[in-house]
């Protein structure tokens, strides 16, 4: 018996047609001697009616929630049913009977806390809310790639096992690589820069790792990093690309995920070009005028970002031109003011989504910037040696997919978004 | 000064127009008191002419191969020039002067061996041959995703740091995860199966790792794995999907990478549906009839695959229904013949590209199959416990991108294809 249709393909115009569905038992109700079975497949929910005197009635009695089944039946238009149709069952074939009770209620009658949800994650991912998140994420990523393809970008796959710390920082996971110590890449930063020096316009969507000790709603030990690097470009070009990316993603999700946004009861922020750009210096001034005692050179933390969000009246804004020494060694300083850098962060309300900059492309500048940060250029020779061989000026950014998805779903914790999140206490499932 | 065009956008119809290009000095020639500079950008090569009495002549004298420059000039149609156009330089601005001599000749006048190429990889990736490989790979991956999107598949991101060996095998890289031992995933196998149990049709393109001790042209310690898993489907459905994927990829590359195939001097194999399917048993019989002393249960090695390739007269063929015990524990046995399994490999000439099967979806069967392979079900409880909660029948496959690219480029070694390959002796660049 083969599935002939997905649930969302069944419409009232198919009245009388015999079809076969496959999916999960979302709910079973007894009513007036009949069984009403809500079947779930990847396209949604559908109502199956099983008559008391049908052969399937006995079979249906043993069906627990979340069992997988196939159903052969006849389409009946019915205004009272969801989507205006129900299926009158001819045959119900159980495929796998689920244990009862379930450790997590997929039909959402009983709400569970996040720890339980992540522990029983497979069941949690079957909840309509998580199905919506997964579908929206699929389109966010798809739209991201489509925009970049249209701008002539090429997809790259950079190495994830690396010999040295990418940016000289800590927070690396050590790997035992054929008996030698190596590390998991925190970011494809240096490799994407090198590839911009060969392929010009590159992007990558791939895992990246940070050994975050702290447990926050915005950090994962393993996350999906969306990276872009572009030769013969500067940070303004990159901000323009990000504007296009974001606006296209928002339009795409609005167009293709109307149902999922409804399921999440979430309204996407209105985003239009240009996205507000405020310099770091102006941001500091604004914060000082609001009575905070922040000063030039300080990081702008969440409480301050909340103030900026309110003052600017913008869901999304760039903070540009950060102090040079607050940024990594590969960040280019401004030619006319070397205290500040050609850099930016993109902020959603009070959450950093993107960090980007013009990069240094001269070996002697890279060496100077490494030293200015107490790093030894010799340890970065594997990277800076290539700058002897004609590196173009270039710029780029990195964006965390799970953080970006907070903007697209209204969820509040990146651990809800990652399918199987990894953090200090989670290595399974 | 901003780039106004890419090189491949300059056509004879633009005669007299002032344009600005950016790129690398591919070659410089002196001829008749003029300099002929071949400029390279991501779209190809273009010819720049610099007159002896122009301001740029002195600048051009210092330009070494692979330096990055910008060039402002006037388009002149000229039949003798490549693409029928050359640019008469008004201004040449050096951006980064490359050291000379280069450790690797990007213009390919001097051929280097693979070790040197991988050591000087950034320069190697600028060679037109590698540029072609990168562009073809971009389209192979793009076409793969497009076909799957059209079939209703959703992109997933599975965890790469895992607690236990995926398939009970060795060859894992240990990771120190917050002081505990964990491993890098050999494959997303178990997670993609679980996700088929929530999302039905899923795919992932992501790194995977095998601690391969041996140095062969077909193995990498880190490779890109293209994975598909589909609920309510069996191995025949999956082979049908693979046929569509391969045929679409071949058409896509033929259509959009004509120039790159020419650069590689490579002709794609003719592939049409259906792709030949031969059972393992028939393959063994055919090999025995050709005088090999292979017997049922043996693996089919490269020498035997060469014979099959010749006998079948096919570039691409499936070997189906392998002995059950030759396949991993998650592989489903045939209902009517439990000695053999619902499985297949896809072979390109004599190279395995894909491995796939119908999977087991009943807990008791999984437990039995684990035991039959000397594995302890308790160690796989994190996986098999979910089979208590309504797993659908499902099937899927895994495909190595770099191996697939051998078919699309004619290159002979996956290390040439991986941008920065990782193997026992390579951790940099």
What does this structure look like?
Chains A, B: Belongs to the class-II aminoacyl-tRNA synthetase family. Type 2 subfamily. Chains A, B: Its EC number is 6.1.1.23. Chains A, B: Mg(2+) 3 binds at residue 352. Chains A, B: Residues 134-429 form the Aminoacyl-transfer RNA synthetases class-II family profile domain. Chains A, B: Residues 189-192 are annotated as: Aspartate. 2 copies of one chain form a homodimer. By secondary structure, chain A is an alpha+beta fold. The first copy, chain A, has 2 domains: 7-96, OB fold (Dihydrolipoamide Acetyltransferase, E2P); 125-417, BirA Bifunctional Protein, domain 2. Helix content of chain A is 30%, strand content 28%. Chain A contains 13 helices and 18 strands. Chain A has helices at 56-61, 114-119, 121-126, 128-150, 189-199, 235-256, 258-264, 280-289, 302-312, 363-372, 381-384, 401-409, 414-417; strands at 18-31, 34-41, 44-50, 68-77, 85-96, 154-155, 161-162, 174-177, 180-184, 201-209, 222-231, 276-279, 316-320, 333-334, 337-341, 343-348, 351-359, 394-400. Chain A has an 8-stranded mixed beta sheet, sandwiched between helices. A 5-stranded mixed barrel of chain A has the order 1-2-3-5-4. In chain A, helix 4 packs across helix 6 (235-256), helix 4 (128-150) packs across helix 7 and helix 4 (128-150) packs across helix 12. The first copy, chain A, is elongated, with a radius of gyration of 26 Å. The relative contact order of chain A is 0.11. The model of chain A has no long low-confidence stretch (mean pLDDT 95). At the A-B interface, strand 1, helix 3, helix 4, strand 6 and strand 7 of A face strand 1, helix 3, helix 4, strand 6 and strand 7 of B.
């Amino acid at each position: 018996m083969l599935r002939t249709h997905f649930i969302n393909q069944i419409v009232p115009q198919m009245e009388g047609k015999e079809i076969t569905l496959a999916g999960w038992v979302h709910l079973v109700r007894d009513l007036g001697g009949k069984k009403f079975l809500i079947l779930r497949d990847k396209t949604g929910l559908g109502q199956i009616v099983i008559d008391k005197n049908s052969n399937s009635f006995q079979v249906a009695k043993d069906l627990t929630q979340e069992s997988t089944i196939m159903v052969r039946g006849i389409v009946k238009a019915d205004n009272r049913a969801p989507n205006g149709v129900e299926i009158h069952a001819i045959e119900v074939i159980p495929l796998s009977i689920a244990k009862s009770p379930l450790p997590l209620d997929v039909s959402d009658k009983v709400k569970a806390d996040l720890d339980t949800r992540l522990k029983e994650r497979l069941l949690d991912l079957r909840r309509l809310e998580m199905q919506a998140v997964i579908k929206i994420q699929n389109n966010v990523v798809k739209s991201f790639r489509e925009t970049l393809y249209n701008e002539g970008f090429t997809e790259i796959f950079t190495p994830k096992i690396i010999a040295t710390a990418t940016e000289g920082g800590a927070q690396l996971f050590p790997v035992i690589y054929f008996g030698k110590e190596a590390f998991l890449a925190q970011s494809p930063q240096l490799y994407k820069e090198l590839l911009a020096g060969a392929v010009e316009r590159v992007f990558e969507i791939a895992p990246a790792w940070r050994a975050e000790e702290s447990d926050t709603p915005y950090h994962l030990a393993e996350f999906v990093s969306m990276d872009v690097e572009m030769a013969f470009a500067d940070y303004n070009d990159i901000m323009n690309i990000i504007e296009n990316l974001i606006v296209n993603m928002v339009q795409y999700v609005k167009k293709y995920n109307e149902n999922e946004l409804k399921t999440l009861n979430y309204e996407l922020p209105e985003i239009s070009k240009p996205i507000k750009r405020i310099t770091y210096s102006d941001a500091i001034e604004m914060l000082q005028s609001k009575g905070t005692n922040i000063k030039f050179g300080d990081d702008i933390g969440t409480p301050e970002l909340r103030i900026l969000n309110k003052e600017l009246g913008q869901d999304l804004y760039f903070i540009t031109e950060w102090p040079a020494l607050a940024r990594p060694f590969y960040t280019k300083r401004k030619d006319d003011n070397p205290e500040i850098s050609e850099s930016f962060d993109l902020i959603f309300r009070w959450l950093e989504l993107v960090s980007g900059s013009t990069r240094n492309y001269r070996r002697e500048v890279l060496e100077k910037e490494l030293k200015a940060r107490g790093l030894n250029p010799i340890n970065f020779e594997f990277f800076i040696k290539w700058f002897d061989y004609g590196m173009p000026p270039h710029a780029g950014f990195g964006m965390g997919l799970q953080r970006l998805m907070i903007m697209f779903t209204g969820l509040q914790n990146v651990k809800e978004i990652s399918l199987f999140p990894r953090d200090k206490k989670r290595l399974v499932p």
